[in-house]
Design a protein that fits this description.
Elements (H helix, E strand, L loop, with lengths): L1 E7 L3 H12 L3 E7 L3 H10 L4 E2 L2 H4 L5 E4 L6 H8 L8 E4 L5 H10 L5 E7 L20 E5 L6 H13 L3 E4 L2 H27 L4 H7 L2 H7 L6 H10 L1 H23 L3 H15 L13
Parallel strand pairs: 1-2, 1-4, 2-3, 4-5, 5-6, 7-8
Antiparallel strand pairs: 6-7
């Protein structure tokens, strides 16, 4: 489908993309660009990329550049790549916040080089290519955030590639994307972290952790993710996450009021609504996190 794909950042997401691209024969050549030499060597050994190179070397003849770096450095990597991008090259990313990146990338790229924002809704609580999986995107939604300036041929090629990964491409305006992930991805991470910190701040922390069973572990699973990565995500999507926190606070207050007033109807209504909505979630995705 693509002759040469360059992945800048061969961590969990970049490495999983590389594994899927290589093993499913979606590209003739996949080249990794990675600051961590040990991680890049491992990526080559496990088959996540065919070879490694510097950004300048890798981009010669590349048809697609995937920015799979931490969100805080993606624009910097794109700026470094500019002199080496060829006319017709498609650039995409995998970051969980789109607004600033989409706007800056479109302003930065010259005519003939096409940017399409991307965000696979899948992940694991591990870092690096050691945790990468070929089937990470199987059954997951893969969001694309085209604008009026987006080249339709480039968008179609990316959709076909995403389908080849086993994921489901979905278009969303980048503003709508950032609002949505603030609620369904970024807020849950905050809640998981807050719950763990509530236990750790208790005088009986060790007893509580010893007693913690499936409910606590399932609810707090994503709190094990990389703190530095999440710092960048939360600060980059700050306004939308703060709005999500306020919406959550309203729902928590409803439950609290039901308990304070011994209002069984209010409590049951809130819990039943949550039960009904939760039961409608699709269960055909293997590894869904956020991203």
């Amino acid at each position: 489908m693509f002759n040469k794909i360059v992945i800048a950042g061969v961590g969990l997401i970049g490495g999983s993309l590389g594994l899927a691209l290589c093993k499913r024969n979606l590209a003739n050549e996949v080249v990794g660009v990675e600051a961590n030499k040990d991680n890049l060597d491992l990526a080559i050994r496990v088959g996540a990329v065919h070879s490694g190179a510097t950004l300048a070397e890798a981009l010669v003849g590349a048809e697609l550049l995937i920015l799979a770096t931490p969100i805080g450095v993606a624009l910097g990597v794109l700026e470094m790549a500019l002199p080496y991008l060829s006319k017709g090259t498609i650039v995409t990313d995998v970051g969980s916040v789109k607004g600033r990146l989409v706007e800056r990338a479109e302003a930065m790229l010259p005519a003939g080089i096409h940017f399409v924002g991307g965000h696979p809704m899948a992940g694991l609580e591990v870092a690096g290519v050691a945790g990468a999986r070929e089937d990470l995107f199987e059954g997951a939604s893969y969001l694309l955030t085209p604008t009026e300036r987006t080249d339709r041929v480039a968008l179609t090629r990316l959709k076909q590639l995403i389908e080849g990964l086993g994921a489901k491409p979905m278009e969303l305006a980048y503003q709508e994307h950032d609002q949505a992930v603030a609620i369904i991805s970024h807020l849950p991470h905050l809640l998981a972290a807050a719950l763990v910190n509530t236990v750790s701040a208790d005088t009986k922390e060790q007893l509580l952790l010893d007693l913690a069973a499936g409910g606590f572990r399932d609810t707090t699973r994503i709190a094990a993710s990389n703190p530095m990565m999440w710092r960048d995500i939360l600060l980059t999507n700050r306004s939308q996450v703060l709005e999500a926190i306020e919406k959550f606070r309203e729902q928590l207050n409803l439950i609290e009021q039901g308990m304070l007033r011994f209002d069984s109807e209010l409590l049951v209504g809130s819990l039943t609504r949550a039960q009904n909505v939760r039961s409608t979630l699709p269960e055909n995705r293997k590894y869904c996190l956020r991203k």
